[in-house]
Predict the 3D structure of the following.
Amino acid sequence: MTLRVLIVDDHEVVRLGLRTLLSNQPDFIVVDEAASAKESIEKAAQHHPDVVVMDIRMPGMNGIEACEIIKEQQPDVGVIMLTSYAEDEMLFDAISAGAAGYVLKQGGGEELVRAIQRVGKGDALLDPAVTQRVLARVRQATRQEQAAAFNDLTEQELRVLGLVAEGCTNKEIAKALFLGEGTVRNYVSSILSKLSLTNRAEAAAYAVRHGLHEFLEEFG
């Protein structure tokens, strides 16, 4: 299988070195080069490469932003981030943007060749330790998003909303939480007002969409 590769880096010397390295591989074809993130989006749309080797740090739009756009337009394209820094923050952003992984510029040419071969077959590049760090960041971001979604609700309102999401009536909620039905009605009205919703069905959908069940488990 011959892999079509697009090289993206704002330094001409780096692009030349990468082209020379990859052109010597019998199963690679370098379809083009791009000197900027914006140009990489245009070249990717033009050539439909199998793999994009993308520098992360470029003037203006960076490689992560370009990766996200390319992956939106061509989900099957594998994007390898080429970076001088194995930073967790940059790595998290790159994976979130759809990158298959990253290769350090300090690494040898064989490492990049193997990475392109793996990504060309649909594999990811992250080792288990890095994967765990990325997943931890994803979980943290999810918790922060959930917290923001329910930030205005009190602990009791969260419990009421959880039961609303389960399809419970006011009477059933009152029994479960040892409250009066009138109190439950007040809680439901307050929840709808705080979340800018109009009815219980919308409240239930909101709770499910923002992962209230998981949030309540975390909340304890």
About this structure: The first strand starts at residue 3 and ends at 8. The CA atoms of residues 37 and 66 lie 5 Å apart. The mean pLDDT is 88.
